[in-house]
Write a structure and sequence with these properties.
Layout (H helix, E strand, L loop, with lengths): L4 H20 L10 H30 L19 H14 L1 H5 L2 H18 L2 H8 L3 H18 L7
Helix pairs in contact: 1-2, 3-5, 5-7
């Protein structure tokens, strides 16, 4: 459904612009002899001509060059990068989920968590991480344990094997 939203918005722009332009050029005139309509057309006719044509051009432009469309939700070509907020959240999760890190100096725990997050985010993309989130703990252990072990040893924290 989301993949058709850009097309729907583009066609709304095109047909809305067409309707506005037709009103501006008096091709469509719902109340020809009504004095209110004549006043309205004198006041807004030029705007409707220019605005209607601009909307149609914008809609066609978005159809031709979809990557420039602000409503384009198809991000296949866009490489999903880790944000600093996501890395920070992951560091907090690592610290909060580890009794070993909770029992160490908070500064050291933060360094170990940062080391792990840096290694993990270098090795795995955001999309791969989302797949990892769906795995069981047993399936995740071979993926994360080597990274955690390296970081723990790097900061001199002894582990029980």
């Amino acid at each position: 459904m989301i993949k058709i939203l850009p097309y729907i918005s583009d066609f709304i722009l095109i047909f809305g612009g067409l309707y506005a332009a037709l009103l501006g050029f008096k091709v469509i005139n719902p109340k020809k002899d009504d004095p209110k309509m004549i006043k309205w057309h004198q006041k807004f006719g030029k705007f409707m001509k220019i605005g209607g044509i601009a909307l149609m051009i914008w809609g066609v432009f978005n159809l031709i060059i979809p990557s420039l469309n602000p409503y384009n939700f198809d991000n296949k070509d866009e490489k999903k990068e880790w944000t600093s907020e996501q890395k920070e959240q992951m560091m907090q999760q690592v610290i909060n989920s580890s009794n070993l890190l909770k029992s160490t100096n908070p500064d050291t725990a933060r360094l170990v968590a940062k080391c792990f997050v840096d290694k993990y985010t270098e090795k795995y993309t955001l999309e791969e991480s989302w797949k990892h989130d769906k795995m069981s703990q047993e399936q995740m252990m071979p993926i994360i344990m080597p990274l955690i072990q390296d970081c723990l040893h790097q900061y001199g924290i002894k582990t029980v094997n």
